[in-house]
């Protein structure tokens, strides 16, 4: 057998000697990280889908239907509150004790919370205890996801050669639409296979319970992953950072703000396009939600193609041009998005939602490598995790609420389109303030 496969992956260009893993080890890292991250996004979006479909009847039956839906969907937002905490906790563990330790624990935590959701009593059998437990488990799920993204992007980026770092790390972003499609598919399969009464009684639990199998698989794959030699050397040193987060807030404030700002366009866009638009179509325009959901499914499939392609372009020409192009497209698309929805036609609605999701995918294709390249080894897990999750709260966490508020206040879609444009400007500014580091070794990050 040739020994070439076991030779460390080394980039011969200046500054290109960061990875010390073999190609086989790099593949294991990429597969293990991607599989686990798909699972965590499956958990996250599965909850959102069922919150919109059945949780109002199961956990909030003693209020009006509209209030029940509002309370049910509010539990989805609780996950955003847990994500920054997860970023802080797992960022500290990852910087102090190793990426893989944090990476494995976050998977078990989020997967365990999802499994427990499938075993929850409903309001009919446990009263107020049931929704209280639902909210608690959603928070725990958010904590787990808060540590997941940083771990996924970092282990893949640190294992990759500089000239392929964007492509390899982009699978952490690819996992989001893949997980959402998996969640939608699981719910759709159970809903189609069972009578409506059976689905509401017990069928909704099955997709949650299935996650236990996925957790075991994901954990097994992560047990086969190894740290890079550079990180092992750092972890064996005696001068590790005692408080990585404090170091981020002290010496890496600009990098943290750039990380947060870079997320604004992608986060606001995806939640306006895939969440706000559902309510806008069904309530303001009287369009069947099936049309919008079908468009979201197709848009997610397109994202799974666009994200790695955008990352490849970023590896070749730089992350910043891809960011700017995607943000400009997302910001401008808002002014075409709503007129297309306003036609109430199936094809224009499909074009509107898919176009918005493709623009969002272009922006997010560079997230993983771009964020990792902002921070030094000693604080990288904390910086990436906290920056990404805070950006998620500020951008995605409030986007549907802001969009609803603007539409209600002005009775017009124009302010919502302006909101998308402002978010795009924030991302463009963040990209302009950042140094281009797509060709340097991660050991050389200042």
Protein described:
- The protein has 446 residues and is an all-alpha fold.
- It has two domains: 222 residues, Growth Hormone, Chain: A (Up-down Bundle), CATH 1.20.1250.20; 197 residues, Growth Hormone, Chain: A.
- 79% of the residues lie in helices and 0% in strands.
- The protein is built from 21 helices and no strands.
- Helix 14 crosses helix 20.
- It is globular and about 60 Å long.
- The N terminus is likely disordered.
Largest sheet: none
CATH superfamily of the largest domain: MFS general substrate transporter like domains
* Multimeric status of the protein: single chain
* Residues in helix, %: over 70%
CA radius of gyration is 21 Å
Q: Can you tell me the CATH topology of the largest domain?
A: Growth Hormone, Chain: A
- List segments where confidence is low: pLDDT < 50 over at least 5 consecutive residues: 1-17
Name the overall outline: globular
Order of helices and strands: HHHHHHHHHHHHHHHHHHHHH
Integer tally of domains? 2
SS-based class: mainly alpha
Strand content bin: under 5%
State the separation between the terminal residues, measured CA to CA.
41 Å
Per CATH, the architecture of the largest domain is Up-down Bundle
| Mean pLDDT reading | 85
Strand segment tally: 0
- Discrete helix count: 21
What descriptors fit this protein?
mainly alpha, Growth Hormone, Chain: A, 2 domains, single chain, 0% strand, 446 residues
């Amino acid at each position: 057998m040739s020994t070439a496969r076991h030779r460390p992956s080394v980039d011969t260009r200046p500054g290109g000697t960061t990875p010390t893993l073999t190609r086989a080890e790099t593949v294991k890292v990429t597969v293990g990280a991607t599989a686990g991250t798909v699972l965590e996004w499956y958990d996250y979006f599965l909850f959102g889908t069922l919150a919109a479909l059945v949780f109002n009847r199961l956990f909030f039956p003693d209020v009006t239907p509209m209030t029940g839906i509002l309370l049910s969907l509010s539990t989805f937002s609780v996950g955003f509150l847990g994500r920054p905490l997860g970023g802080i906790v797992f960022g500290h563990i990852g910087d102090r004790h190793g990426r893989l330790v944090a990476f494995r624990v976050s998977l078990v935590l989020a997967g365990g919370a999802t499994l427990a959701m499938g075993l929850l009593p409903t309001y009919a059998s446990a009263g107020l205890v049931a929704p209280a437990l639902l909210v608690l488990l959603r928070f725990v799920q958010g904590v787990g996801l808060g540590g997941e993204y940083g771990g996924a992007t970092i282990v893949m980026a640190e294992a990759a050669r500089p000239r392929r770092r964007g492509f390899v790390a982009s699978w952490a972003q690819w996992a989001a639409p893949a997980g959402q499609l998996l969640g939608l598919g699981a719910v759709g399969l159970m809903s189609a296979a069972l009578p409506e009464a059976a689905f509401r009684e017990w069928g909704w639990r099955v997709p949650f319970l299935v996650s236990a199998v996925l957790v075991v698989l994901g954990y097994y794959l992560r047990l086969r992953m190894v740290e890079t030699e550079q990180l092992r050397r750092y972890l064996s040193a005696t001068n590790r950072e005692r408080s990585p987060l404090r170091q981020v807030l002290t010496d890496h404030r600009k990098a943290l703000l750039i990380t947060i700002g870079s997320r604004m366009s992608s986060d606001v866009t995806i939640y306006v396009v895939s969440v706000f638009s559902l309510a806008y179509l069904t309530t303001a325009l009287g369009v069947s939600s099936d049309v919008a959901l079908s468009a979201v499914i197709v848009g997610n499939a397109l994202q799974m193609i666009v994200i790695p392609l955008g990352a490849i372009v970023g590896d070749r020409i730089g992350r910043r041009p891809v960011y700017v192009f995607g943000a400009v497209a997302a910001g401008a698309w808002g002014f075409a998005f709503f007129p297309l929805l306003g036609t109430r036609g199936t094809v224009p609605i499909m074009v509107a939602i898919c176009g918005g999701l493709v623009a969002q995918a272009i922006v997010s294709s560079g997230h993983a490598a771009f964020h990792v390249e902002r921070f030094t080894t000693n604080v990288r897990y904390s910086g990436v995790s906290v920056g990404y999750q805070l950006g998620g709260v500020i951008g995605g966490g409030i986007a549907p609420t802001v969009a609803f508020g603007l539409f209600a206040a002005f009775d017009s879609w124009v302010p919502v389109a302006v909101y998308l444009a402002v978010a795009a400007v924030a991302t463009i500014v963040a990209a302009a303030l950042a140094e281009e580091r797509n060709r340097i070794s991660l050991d050389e990050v200042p």
